[in-house]
Amino acid sequence: MKDLDFDALLLAAKPDDYLADTKFTDTVMQKVQHSEILLSAVRKMDVNKKETFIMKFKHLPRIAIVAIALGALVVVSTGAYAAYQLLWAKPEVHVIESKTSVSGRDEVLLSTSGCDTTSSTRYELKKGATIEADRISAVVQAHCELQAIENWAQQLYGDQAMPGLNGLENNSKPVRQTIVVTSMATHLQMKQENSLTFAGLDTYGWPKNTLKADKNVKYIVDGKNSTADEIKEGDPVVYVATGNISMTRNQNGSIDTDNNPERTLVAVIKLSMPFEDYDQFAWQSLSERETCYGNPNDDCVAGGASIDLYMGGGNAGISGNTIMKEIQGNVVGLNKYKTSIRSSSGTIFTVTTPTDVISDYNINKAGRYYNNQEVILGSSISVQYAEDKNAQATEISASYMRFQIELVSKGDPVKAY
Amino acid sequence: MKEKDCIAQIISGDTERYRELVDRYQTGLIIHCENILKDRQEGEDVAQEAFIKAYKNLSAFEAEKASFSTWLYRIATNLCIDTLRKNKRKVHVKDIEFHLEAMLPKHVEQEEIEHIRKLVAELEPPKYAEIIKAYFWEGKSYQELADFYNTSTGTIGTWMSRAKLQLKEKLV
């Protein structure tokens, strides 16, 4: 019996009277309940709108997902900035190289500063992209700016520490928690004496959002403190709001939270580039590419969805010098048990499977489950396989292998990459 | 309550029911992520993120195509891969997909469950039974066990291996 199978067996044998780690569960539930506050608005929408929203919502990157994060652990600023001081480092993104990839996609290599250092610097346009290649750097820069704003807002307005929920007894008194909501990129639609109305979120199915604007609201232009006059109707903006929610542990031991806290507008930030560069569909048009594991001469799409065509081999042969590798490419040859793909470096890899998995998938599964996304010449395929770390074989017939179709989205509809 | 019904209730607005799913799967999911990332704390963080991500996407979960646990473990596995990549770490020799396949919650007949529990209780010395229970059933980490027994995590690992070996020999 393999060791991990055995672990699963032991886990399955857990007696009912062993309780889960409530601290872990509380932390998850706390974050879930925070996001629930905004999701509750979705539930109130009509069915069609709700479906559209959820479809889009699930593809949004972290910055856009309503940005209800718990308070940052450290407050690094008191907000007393001089007018000339930049509140966050302005991201810079430049194109180093622009080319058409082996698979015919527009691809750029970027240099970045002021961006999340873990961000990739190689991007390509997905199938069905809503932008042209010459906008990739602008879209990445816009994304970096939104991340910088979100980080700034969390640091400035978030709570210093998580509330002490773990120590709460049943039927406890409520604990109050400040939440910070950083909006998606939007437009300032209307300025009134005591309120501001933002429009852009309804692109994603949200209602128009009008918030009170008192004298404490910060107005930020070009990353510096400014005045309300400098931000005009129609300008692309992000707004930051805070809210107080109260949480308590009820008699059943569960955490209850009030679901719809009033939000207080605290900052309006005029974005430095046109709204189109911040649009979520523009960002979703890009794929990050990174070096494939075990095949350093090739790039693979980072993350993303996929459909399994074949998984097999268990753990056979994975030991010693054998490591897992991956390769991605477009199908250039289909011959029953053999599928040939061309990788990003132009190398042809031929994958041999024990059965005709492509035909089986095309005939029995593609139509029934996957929106008729058949594997044909040109389809984007990825393979993960076991191989000696020093080997460079292009014939893949590993005893352990995972063979997948790359997808742009696995939602409804399924879209091939 | 059946898991499917529980999920339907969560989607219809009863958020609190999600607690049941977190309670049910947390220990296994943390161990799964820990195995891939080779780091307990990272494993816990990623498992937590996976639960949150699963919740946010619950309305897109298709119960007729996969069980919730399979879907949840897939989300967590992808997050582990992302974490490895973000940290510019190579994928470990122990293959990630193999981990996934092996660690997915299994249906085990009640008779076999009782047999395993009995074998665990009979482990010798008794501390072997204690560490198996603490790690797999109580969700304790190697570090917590090492602190409790005033020893190193390496020693806990050795005890764990010996305990599993004893169990396997009796099970085969």
Give me the CATH fold name of the largest domain in chain B: Rna Polymerase Sigma Factor, Chain: A
Radius of gyration of chain B: 17 Å
Largest interface: A-B, 61 and 62 residues
Number of beta strands of chain B: 0
Principal-axis shape of chain A:
globular
The total of beta strands of chain A comes to 22
* CATH architecture classification name of the largest domain in chain B: Orthogonal Bundle
Helical proportion of chain B, percent range: over 70%
Mean of all residue-level pLDDT scores of chain A: 76
What's the oligomerization state? heterodimer
Which class of secondary structure composition applies to the elements of chain A? Answer: alpha+beta
| Major sheet size, sense and barrel closure of chain B | none
Low-pLDDT stretches of chain A: 37-83, 201-207
Distance between the termini of chain A: 38 Å
- Give the total of domains of chain B: 2
Could you characterize the architecture of this molecule?
The complex is a heterodimer of chains A (417) and B (172). Chain A is built from eight helices and 22 strands. Chain A is α+β, with helices and mostly antiparallel strands. Chain A folds into two domains: 21-291, no CATH class; 293-416, OB fold (Dihydrolipoamide Acetyltransferase, E2P). Chain B folds into two domains: 3-103, Orthogonal Bundle (Rna Polymerase Sigma Factor, Chain: A); 110-171, Arc Repressor Mutant, subunit A. Chain B has nine helices and no strands. In chain B, helix 3 packs across helix 4 and helix 7 (126-137) crosses helix 9. The model of chain B has no long low-confidence stretch (mean pLDDT 84). The interface between A and B is large, with 61 and 62 residues.
